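Suppose a colleague, Dr. K., hands you the sequence of a protein chain of 216 amino acids and asks what its three-dimensional shape might be. Before reaching for any lab equipment, you can write down a predicted structure in token form. Begin with the sequence itself:
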Amino acid sequence: PPQSVPGSAAIWRVAIATTAAMVVALTFGWRFVTFVRFQNDHFVHLARAQQLLLGDWPIRDFVDPGLPLMYGVSAAAGYISGISFGTELVLVSCAFALGALFTFLVAVRVGGSIGVAAGVALAEVLIAPRTYSYPKVLLYSAAAWAVLRVIESPAPRRLLLVGALIGTAFLFRHDHGVYIGLTALTAVALGARRLGWRVGTRRLATAAGGAAGVGL
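The predicted structure, expressed as tokens, is then:
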């Protein structure tokens, strides 16, 4: 961000916050108003969410293909607002909006341009991912943001956050946790390579503790 002119940093932060709010609002609105239907694959988890709300339990009453949070989140939304296509659409639209937000924040941090970052977020929206693919947008963009934060400053709370995201991704679908985990833990290890194996081990253990905490 620009630092040479007094007050420019504050203006930069306000511009980022304003653009980020616009990205969230426009993404949510676009996904909501352009919705046509849920594809068949969306019901892989939505049907299980309905079963949860009817009192069934995973494993005991129906097969869990390894995505407990995927249908668990839909069930929670249905419990709060009533199970319906409208509730699920709001949930999916919010998830895509948050994914666009994290994408924007990562892009502006890496590229240093609000316009370019907004364009990257817009491209993500316009490719129109299928509704059931919202974790691929939200989880990976959130993980990229968290990893950047750890690279900048590997404070314990940030390492725990990265670990929590790994655990959350794993519970959405196991391979998400593997991909995000390998990437994040590699970044943590590389960030400590010049500080000795004890520091690296401690940081990795902190991140792993965050992941285990979510899993438990």
